[in-house]
Amino acid sequence: MNKPREKILLFVEYYLPGYKFGGPIQSVANLAQLLSETYEVYIVTRDRDFGDLQPYDGILTNEWIKCEYYQVIYLSPAHISIAAIHGLIQSQSFDYIYTNSLFSYFTRILLFVTLWSRQKIIIAPRGELNEGAINLKAYKKKPYIYLMRFVLNGRIIWHATDFEEIKSIKRIFFNSKIDPLQVRLAPDTPRLLSQRKSYYKETGRVRLVYVSRITPVKNLIFLLQLLKGVRQGSIEIYLYGPIADSSYWRQCKEFISELPINCQIVYKGALPHDKVNEVMALYDFMILPTLGENFGHTIFESLSVGLPVIISDKTPWRNLIAKNVGWDIPLKPSCWLDVLKICLDMDNQTYSQMSEQAKALANDYVKSEKFEQSYLKLFS
Questions:
Q1: Fold of the domain built from segment(s) 205-366
Q2: Which residues, 6 or more positions from 286, have their beta carbon under 8 angstroms from its beta carbon?
Q3: Glycosyl transferase family domain spans which residues (predicted)?
Q4: What distance in Å separates the CA atoms of residue 191 and residue 172, rounded to the nearest whole number?
Q5: Mean pLDDT of the chain
Q6: d(Cα 191, Cα 28) in Å, to the nearest integer?
Q7: Rounded to 5 degrees, what are φ and ψ at 74?
Q8: pLDDT for 92 beyond 70
């Protein structure tokens, strides 16, 4: 007789068919599919996309829906409460509870309702503890972290997606009850996009694409400010992503209005997951001056299409110049201006070589990472 499969209850603020919250949605979708080969997976999420006031059309709420790889429940706002979440946890015998954020409302409820239980909880900070991210709205985050140090115990397992995140977790919770053995490494599970067949890069012109939320941590204003210093060549930047911070976007628009005539910025709105491939194939480089990423799905997806990247040095994607797939640059305007000039002057032959190397790097990453083994260790 086969042993019953263990059950995982997975909490995520926003999930498919949503797309406006970016990388975390894809992370959880890939994770759920991978785990479904060994575990029974149950996903708890909101009934609407990030920033939306209305729920998804045609999706049943507050009841379990069976999908191909897992079951999912879309909770209405009235059902996201201590009583409702406690009821979900008690409704079945779950072996693990996994939450896809340290600061989400779901996580705060979970830590409260399981405070006196022995229920194993896995917390994935998803880059929230990186230095750049933690310093944004620190007045809210640091008191919360301070309180967490008093409630953490041996039942908490930390899911880090790279060695830098392990360092961040240990640095912030060094003096708490956290056991170093409870910090476990399992890399993000990305998706490979279809490689574009051909593309021509025009010398003296560069078409850049930004695919991310409009929010301070993505650091778009840094890019807009330095563009004032570009007086030669034609630079076009196309922005895709939801406006997560309206005040920040107003500041961005002020800088856009002051740019020289040779710099064109176009906001294209949020980008659905099924359109990412065809949109990325239209541009020369992906650009992201982020203050911190724990993985960077947009970065990986760009490389897999064959799109070299121009990013900050605050992500796990490093030594890109040596690999001839792009640049990971310190957040110094002079460094970024130098790279933009190189991109403007680049001819098609040089660009084509970079594009092919980008595709190869993405393929090699997928082949080299032992995703299934890492996640079996995480849930053990």
A1: Rossmann fold (3.40.50)
A2: 208, 209, 210, 211, 280, 298, 299, 302, 307, 308, 309, 310, 311
A3: 196-327
A4: 31
A5: 90
A6: 12
A7: -100, 110
A8: yes
